Amino acid sequence: MKICLVSYRDMKHPEAGGAEVIIQEVMSRIADRGHEVTLLTGMFPGASPTDRIGPLCIHRTGNTYTFNFAAPRYFKRVLEPEGFDLVAEDLNKIPFFMPRHTRLPVLAIVPHLFGTTVFQQASLPIAAYVYLNERFIPRVYGESMFSVLSETTRDDLITRGIPPAHIRVIHSGIDHDLYRPSPMPVENRPPRIVYLGRLKKYKCIEFPIQVLPRILERVPEAEYWIAGEGDYKEELVRISRRLGVQNHVRFPGFVGGEDKVRLLQESRILTYTSPKEGWGLSIIEAGACATPVVASDSPGLCESVVHGKNGFLVPHGDLGKLGDAILTLLTDDAVAGELADGGVRWAATFNWQASADKTLALIEEILGHPQARRRAGEETR
Q1: CA–CA separation, 360 and 372 (whole Å)
Q2: Which residues contact residue 128 at a Cβ distance below 8 angstroms, ignoring those fewer than 6 apart?
Q3: Is there a single domain that holds both residue 54 and residue 195?
Q4: H or E element: which one contains 227?
Q5: Residue 326 is part of a domain; what is its CATH number?
């Protein structure tokens, strides 16, 4: 099959995050099985218009602010004549409304939708633009199938009017050769709290900074490492200075590969305090490294964190309970060790091969391939 994937970012983009990892890992495995996958994505400074990342052929056009306009035009002019079987659209940021631009079947891949949380991230005009565009999803994609990362995103789509029969929940996987249990028991690690991901306002990365003065009263050596890049970094620096904890907040920048694994393996806690996520890929990766998690009890995160198994969930924005959870894991070795072990067991249930299998089966179902029809008949019997 020939598949054209449309997504805002690729893995070389300086702000690539978990959503891009998931796309790359799943689609690379589909391409490795002999299918042709072309990724149409946005330009960024220093990028080339065409490229290859693993088995994926890359075409770039537009930029962060124009890609949703440039992508459909580029597809019609350059890519559609190549004879694709299916378009897979990554509905992450602003919809491209590809069903309006092609007669090919469209698979909508949805990490999560912003809804009203976009008003915490962007200026009012941009937030209103994104919010209003999302309102058209049921009308434009009414005949499409959807792949989502979590049950909460599935429920969100159903609330918006997408038929449940059109939605498949396909969880992300994990690279178990890369992410592995730490040789350092959690009780022997420094009192380091770490965040991994894009530095964006809506992710509320400042919450652990705001509870740090209280934490330092009990654990004077505690540090909060904020690993990643993004336009919210300077504000995070200002907050840490205003609270007088700047010597305990570190910004190592983007961390990937073995350096990321080492950071997780040598940290006591991973935190995620976002009000909404599609899924917490780094949470599963941390679990594989035997690192407990403290996260907001938010859509997406409440599925990647099982309270009391691989970490703690706290009400979003409740700084008192956030501080309590962090202090428990910094001071109670038995609890930290139990959640570290639980994280390893939980992470073991996720793998990229299963994610690719389910995605490919959905594509075959959409295209009516004999394999899909045969599977459907066997399930009926």
Answers
A1: 10
A2: none
A3: no
A4: strand 223-227
A5: 3.40.50.2000
Does one domain contain both 26 and 112? yes
For residues 328 and 216, is the Cβ–Cβ distance under 8 A? no
Domain shared by 213 and 190, yes or no: yes
Radius of gyration of the chain (CA): 21
Distances from the Cα of 136 to the Cαs of 38, 149, 163, 381, in angstroms?
26, 21, 15, 38
* Domain hosting residue 337, numbered range: 186-347
Token couple for 336 = 């930290």
| Parallel/antiparallel/unpaired status of strands 56-61 and 50-53 | antiparallel
- Assigned token pair, 246: 């700047």
Neighbours of 89 (CB within 10 A): 24
| Strand locations in 140-222 (E) | 145-148, 167-169, 192-196
Q: Tokens in use for 88?
A: 């897979």
Specify whether the CB–CB gap between 118 and 131 falls below 8 A: yes
**181 in a domain, yes or no?**
no
Q: Are 372 and 293 part of one and the same domain?
A: no
DSSP for 228-269, written as a single string = S--TTHHHHHHHHHHTT-GGGEE------HHHHHHHHHT-SE
Residues 163 and 245 occupy one common structural domain: no
Closest to 106 (Cα-Cα) out of 355, 363, 375? 363
Distance, in Å, from the CA atom of 274 to the CA atom of 298, rounded to the nearest integer, reads: 7
| Contact between 337 and 292 (Cβ < 8 Å) | no
Question: pLDDT 10s digit of each residue in the chain, 381 long?
Answer: 999 999 999 999 988 888 899 999 999 999 999 999 999 999 999 999 999 999 999 999 999 889 999 999 999 999 999 999 999 999 987 899 999 999 999 999 998 887 777 776 677 888 888 888 889 999 999 999 999 998 989 999 999 999 999 999 999 999 999 999 999 999 999 999 999 998 999 899 999 999 999 999 999 999 999 999 999 999 999 999 999 999 999 999 999 899 999 999 999 999 999 998 878 899 999 999 999 999 999 988 999 999 999 999 999 999 999 999 999 999 999 999 999 999 999 999 999 999 999 999 999 999 996 554 444 444 434
Q: Per the structure, how many domains does the chain have?
A: 2
In this structure, the answer to whether residues 293 and 357 fall within a common structural domain is no
